[in-house]
């Protein structure tokens, strides 16, 4: 993928002897990892004689077209909803998704699941406006609500991150919200009212969000591509000393370093800022987990209680992630999760 993301050398010899089964396996892996379109961009740079068989290549191209069409639909409907919120005096800040896709060479090739936005204390009023415009409020938790708007699933956030039962997380939440409030000159997704977060917010949010996914259910190559594309574009615009100080405080440093190491050694990211650290000690084990583990929670459709029990099971199964990457004990985190659910049902910061 590096040749598609960072214009690195295309190694055609490595796939010269591939047969149809090899290409089919790559297609399935790319789809499972959320990078089907990005991998196709890389495949398209190969000499014609080294590309997949014609039928698979056509199927791949059609899949990419579907990804592009879905992205455009999501962007149009998300922009429409953001316009309604802006007209009501709210500040819809886009998280992940459209805030990250702009870093990709082809933004439409960054697969987006939901439209994540932050309205903060205006979350409930935002829900009401969306419902008044025809949306369906499917679920409303303490962190965010789920709104279905014209086929687009929207996560409307009250909090940027999960804070229930954790003083540490609440402290980080206050810091993140402070970054959003400090952004005086607000950039927006072109042609929309979707506000783009400041660079430091994006760096910390991507790191914390990715770390929590890694601990609870694993991450995919898409998460690594997000980080790689972000660093490639913003590495000279970041206060890395502050970033690493915050990472050290909230146990995110090893995860950030591993993501950078995989991006450098696996995707060809060129690090040009000497303040950026690359630590490969845990890169192989993390990458193996990314490629081989399959413990997703939120996409199963089996209900909230199944998801909660699956999360606890994952925490126990992948204790090494807590010990080696998060540098915390998994049992203490499990206790905090359960007591927070019981004693801090409606958290405040």
Quick tags:
349 residues; alpha+beta; 5-stranded mixed β-sheet; 15 helices; 5 strands
How many domains make up the 3D coordinates? Answer: 2
Contiguous runs where pLDDT drops below 50 for at least 5 residues: none
Q: What Rg do the Cα atoms give?
A: 20 Å
With strands numbered from the N-terminus, the spatial order across the biggest sheet is 1-2-5-4-3
Give the class from helix and strand content and strand pairing: alpha+beta
- Overall pLDDT confidence: 91
Principal-axis shape: globular
**Strands, total number:** 5
Number of helices: 15
Order of helices and strands: HHHHEHEHEEEHHHHHHHHH
- What fraction, in percent, of the residue positions are helical? 55-70%
Strand percentage: 5-15%
Biggest sheet architecture:
5 strands, mixed
Separation, N- and C-terminal Cα atoms: 41 Å
Summarize the structure in short.
56% of the residues lie in helices and 7% in strands.
Description of the molecule:
- The chain is of the alpha+beta class.
- The chain folds into 2 domains: 83-197, 2-Layer Sandwich (Beta Polymerase, domain 2), CATH 3.30.460; 198-349, no CATH class.
- It has 15 helices and 5 strands.
- A hairpin with a 2-residue loop joins strand 4 and strand 5 (152-157).
- It starts with a helix and ends in a 6-residue tail after the last helix.
- The relative contact order is 0.10.
- This is Nucleotidyltransferase.
Write the layout of secondary structure elements.
Elements: H1 2-6, H2 20-32, H3 36-43, H4 54-87, E1 93-95, H5 97-101, E2 115-118, H6 123-132, E3 136-140, E4 144-149, E5 152-157, H7 167-182, H8 199-216, H9 221-234, H10 240-249, H11 253-267, H12 283-292, H13 304-317, H14 319-326, H15 330-343
Parallel strand pairs: 2-5
Antiparallel strand pairs: 1-2, 3-4, 4-5
């Amino acid at each position: 993928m590096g040749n598609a993301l960072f214009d690195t050398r295309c190694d055609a010899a490595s796939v010269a002897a591939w047969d149809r089964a090899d290409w089919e396996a790559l297609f399935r892996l790319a789809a499972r990892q959320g990078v089907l379109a990005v991998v196709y961009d890389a495949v398209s740079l190969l000499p014609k004689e080294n590309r997949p068989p014609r039928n698979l290549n056509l199927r791949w191209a059609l899949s990419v077209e579907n990804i592009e069409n879905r992205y455009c639909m999501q962007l149009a409907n998300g922009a429409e909803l953001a316009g309604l919120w802006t007209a009501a005096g709210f500040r819809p800040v886009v998280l992940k998704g459209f805030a990250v896709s702009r870093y990709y060479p082809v933004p439409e090739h960054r697969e987006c699941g939901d439209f994540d936005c932050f309205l903060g204390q205006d979350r409930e009023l935002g829900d009401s406006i969306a419902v008044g415009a025809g949306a369906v409020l499917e679920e409303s938790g303490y962190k965010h609500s789920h709104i279905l708007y014209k086929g687009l699933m929207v996560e409307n956030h009250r909090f940027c991150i999960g804070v229930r039962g954790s003083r540490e997380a609440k402290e980080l939440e206050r810091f993140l919200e402070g970054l959003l409030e400090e952004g005086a000159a607000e950039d927006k997704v072109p042609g929309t009212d979707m506000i783009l977060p400041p660079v430091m917010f994006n760096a910390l949010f991507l790191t914390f969000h990715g770390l929590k996914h890694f601990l609870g259910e694993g991450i995919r190559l898409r998460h690594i591509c997000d980080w790689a594309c972000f660093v490639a574009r913003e590495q000279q615009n970041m206060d890395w000393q502050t970033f690493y100080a915050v990472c050290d405080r909230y146990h995110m440093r090893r995860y950030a370093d591993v993501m950078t190491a995989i991006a450098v050694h696996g995707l060809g990211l060129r690090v040009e800022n000497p303040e950026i650290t690359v630590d490969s000690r845990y890169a192989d084990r993390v990458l193996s987990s990314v490629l081989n583990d399959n413990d997703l929670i939120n996409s199963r459709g089996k209900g909230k209680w199944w998801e909660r029990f699956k999360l606890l099971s994952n925490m126990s199964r992948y204790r090494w992630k807590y010990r080696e990457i998060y540098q915390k004990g998994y049992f203490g985190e499990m206790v905090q999760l359960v007591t927070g659910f019981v004693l801090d049902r409606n958290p405040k910061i």
